[in-house]
Amino acid sequence: MPTQFIKNFNKSALALLEHIGLGIIAIATVVAAASEVRVMFDAGTVTLTDLLLLFLYLEVLSMVSVYYRQGKLPIRYPLYIAMIALARYLILEMKNITEIRMLVVAGAILLLAIAVLAIRYGHVKLPYTEDGSSE
Fold this sequence. Notes:
This protein is mainly α.
């Protein structure tokens, strides 16, 4: 069946591209983290923003690792990354942003945290099977 051959080929090609992309993301993240550590050593100090940036890199690596282990990506990981990125933005720009913008960013972090809680609650109370149907 030529249709089945094309489907299998496309599936394999997409899986290969996916793994190449994940590898590139992992390597780029390690390089960026190493660069940040070098900046900290050169400066002779570690700031909270440096630590939050390292947490961002760690979350990205964790996300890639989970994807390799489970074959799927929990939506919580990008939400965690977004919360850390927003917190880092608040800390970096604390003196340069208005009170309203600060409240908006804090509200965005709160909304992301509520989304994580809702997702976790849904996974516990409304589990689903591997094929996506509810049990």
